[in-house]
Amino acid sequence: MPLKEDKKIVERSTRQQSSILEALYGVDEFKSAQDIHALLSKKKLKVGLATVYRTLQKMAEKEDIDAIKSVDGETLYRHCGQNDGHHHHLICSKCGLTITVEGPAIENWTEKVAKENGFREVSHKVDIFGVCKSCKKK
Amino acid sequence: MPLKEDKKIVERSTRQQSSILEALYGVDEFKSAQDIHALLSKKKLKVGLATVYRTLQKMAEKEDIDAIKSVDGETLYRHCGQNDGHHHHLICSKCGLTITVEGPAIENWTEKVAKENGFREVSHKVDIFGVCKSCKKK
DNA sequence: CTTTTATTGATAATGATTATAATTAGCAAT
DNA sequence: ATTGCTAATTATAATCATTATCAATAAAAG
Ligand SMILES: [Mn+2]
Ligand SMILES: [Mn+2]
Ligand SMILES: [Zn+2]
Ligand SMILES: [Zn+2]
């Protein structure tokens, strides 16, 4: 008789996951789990809050979406269509307008600083918050 | 009779504030409000938790101490003796070892990126997390 | 269809931070 | 030394985002 088979982790696709994905892809600002949940509710799509949290985290881990922490500690997610690799953000703290930026300059700098100090497995998070031009006018 | 005098906001010094200050100056790692509160309790110094929170925030606003957000969202404070101006940190996520670093490179970069995109009142927070040399050995 | 178990979701629990409101205590003037 | 003003403190309740539970549901495989 065969011993316990290797557990193979099966991925299952669900309507909930699709809904969440779709909702996030529909906006191009950073949104919190709560935001997305509210957004789905408004569309009469019933998805549990816990599921929204779980799904967004999982997608962020897989790097399918970007995650940042707002100034007041909330985790925000965003789908960054045009950009696959490592990058950073310039975010308007008034309206949420987000611009994706790349920077060999900082990449090199953090690398260098870390190396000089004998650090390994370094990660950095560089997000710039400010007020965009159109918000400045008001 | 004199009308109401200009309200002068008086700063009052208290034993609580001194205790908190002292506690923070005694360590050179980033500590949370809760950490400091526990630390004071251990020393039989009774200071309300709310007071610790308030005092640390106020000191951070005044730039007397540095504040960062840990990966899991906690606000951490540290007294950075040798450095007054704007700077960043290289932090060991295992042991908390913190190295203060300055970087004209990123300063210029963020400035440039912001300007190019018409952003104003920008602020950035660049903290590098990694594993220090001695932690790597273990 | 049946089995397996990943996934969901209602809800309770957590945990950091903040608000409240009554009490305490600097400090300048008397 | 005493008083008055009000900043500061503190115990406590309230918030609020996020996580843990765990029974119920439903993909995917056979
Ligand atoms: Mn980078
Ligand atoms: Mn800087
Ligand atoms: Zn804006
Ligand atoms: Zn270390």
Provide a descriptive summary of the structure in words.
Chain A has 138 residues and is an alpha+beta fold. The first copy, chain A, is built from five helices and six strands, in the order H-E-H-H-E-E-E-E-H-E-H. The first copy, chain A, has helices at 15-26, 33-42, 49-61, 104-116, 133-137; strands spanning 31-32, 66-69, 75-78, 88-92, 98-101, 120-131. In chain A, the strands form two sheets. A three-stranded antiparallel beta sheet of chain A has the order 1-3-2. In chain A, helix 2 packs across helix 3 (49-61). The A-B interface holds A 69, 73, 90, 92, 99, 101, 103, 105-106, 108-110, 113-114, 117-133, 136 and B 69, 73, 90, 92, 99, 101, 103, 105-106, 108-110, 113-114, 117-133, 136. Strand 6 of chain A pairs antiparallel with strand 6 (120-131) of chain B, so a sheet runs across the interface. One manganese (II) ion (MN) binds at residues 86, 88, 106-107, 124, 126 of chain A. The structure holds a DNA duplex (30 and 30 nucleotides).
